[in-house]
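input
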Amino acid sequence: MTFVKYLKTAIISLSIALGVASLDAKETYTSDVSALPQEAISFLNNNFKGVNITKIKIETGWFKKTTYDVDLGNGVEIEFDKNGNWKEIDSKVANLPLSLLPKQLAEAVNKKVPDAKIESIERKGYGYKIELENDVELLVYDDLRVIKSQKD
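output
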């Protein structure tokens, strides 16, 4: 088989595989908190007690691991992984409290930017990315180094 024929066959096979994988992806919607992993339920009870859950989107698929996107009545959106650990927290209307972060991390952020008004927190491989209301972005590394930058 010539290289061109081999390449065409490989491309067609990959396209078919990706198409089948995307057919397997599912989105389910609910507002029933019991659909969440226990770790996510505990996080919500500890940090957002009494706040109404308006929607939970559960995404599953072959390539995509299960995630839970939770919309709260106060404008906060939280993405949890399959084990119920939060990956990202966004707020459209409220400032997120530093108490959502581990204590030492919250202290490091407060030292770098006192009275920070947090719009979103995202867990990254290196640590955390925190976006503030004043278009400042903080990159906080696991060793608690805080890098401050202006967003574009």
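quick obs: Residues 24-88 form a domain with the Inhibitor of vertebrate lysozyme, Ivy fold (CATH 3.40.1420.30).
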